[in-house]
Design a protein that fits this description.
Structural class: alpha+beta
Order of helices and strands: EEHHEEHHEHEEHEEEEEHEHH
Helix content: 25-40%
Radius of gyration: 22 Å
Largest sheet: 4 strands, mixed
Strand content: 25-35%
């Protein structure tokens, strides 16, 4: 396949013709001597995970938070012949980043002096840094999240715009917002946990604020997920997100004690990366503890 010509930063002026392509898989091609040489295509989730770790190690928490909510497809544009027999083929690739609105704005910012542009550049630098040695990264393209619109989306939007329906109580000023089933989440990890809880068939309240007594004062608290299963109530927290960094550990423990003082016996914290990569297993573990 001929190499595609780069068209500006991130190829943003090109059409959508590559969006629908399926994620490439590891394949084996025959060679002249009838043996096989494996083409190692980088895995999109692995690339994202290592890029997020690269950003966190460098103190770029905002860029890491934006990238963790994205998906990444790897499109192979060319295969290089191996320099020696039986070595891996090299590949030229394009990364197709599928981002939410906030991530898209960061990765397409064009004002060189802006904070958004600097965050986008940090993400691009991280993606280049973690690209495997046998892969040549030719371009990084950005598209808005390609998740199909839910059935009845027109009616949901009409009710939301007209103020006839409250989605939930997650603060509207949150920077990185994900919306699913007319509910708001601060990260892709939270959204995936909500979807897993939905598949489990339990009653749950995501990001719902409440009033509670803390020692001798009343205060507003907000659990990530208040869950009811078989008449038992528990709270599932997603840690490691920008709203639950290690620096807030003491605050979170204080909040946990408030919940327990009101009869919520189980408050479990799970790492955001685990929630992102394996949400159904996280929910299974949580419900097993809650149903004891």
């Amino acid at each position: 396949m001929p190499e595609r010509k780069r068209n500006g930063r991130g190829g943003r002026q090109r059409g959508q013709q590559h969006v629908a392509q399926a994620r490439p898989v590891r394949v084996v091609l025959p060679v002249i001597d009838s043996s096989a040489v494996e083409i190692r295509v980088p895995d999109g989730d692995d690339i994202l995970g290592r890029a997020v770790r690269f950003l966190i190690d460098g103190g770029d928490e905002k860029a890491a938070a934006a990238l963790v909510g994205c998906n990444l497809d790897v499109v192979v544009t060319r295969v290089h012949e191996p320099a020696e027999p039986h070595l891996d083929y090299g590949v030229a690739v394009v990364y197709l980043v599928l981002a939410g609105r906030a991530g898209y704005e960061l990765l397409t910012a064009e004002n060189f002096g802006s904070e958004e542009y600097k965050v986008g550049e940090a993400i691009r630098r991280a993606l280049h840094a973690v690209t495997p040695y046998h892969a040549e990264l030719k371009d990084i393209e950005v598209r808005f999240d390609q998740t199909p619109a839910a059935e009845g989306w027109r009616e949901d939007v009409a009710r939301f715009v007209l103020g006839g329906e409250v989605h939930n109580q997650a603060p509207a000023g949150t920077t990185f917002v994900r919306i699913w089933e007319n509910l708001r989440f601060r990260s892709e990890s939270e959204k995936r946990i909500a979807q897993a809880l939905d598949r489990a068939g339990v009653l749950f309240f995501p990001n719902s604020r409440a009033r509670a007594t803390s020692e001798d004062a009343r205060r507003t608290v907000e659990p990530d997920f208040l869950v009811c299963s078989n008449g038992k109530w528990g709270i599932l927290e997603v840690d490691g997100e920008p709203f639950h960094p290690p620096t807030r550990t003491v605050h979170d423990h204080t909040r946990d004690r408030v919940f327990k003082a009101h009869g919520i016996a189980l408050v479990e914290h799970f790492d955001s990366s685990e929630c992102f990569e394996n949400p159904d297993e996280v929910v299974r573990k949580f419900l097993a503890l809650l149903d004891r």
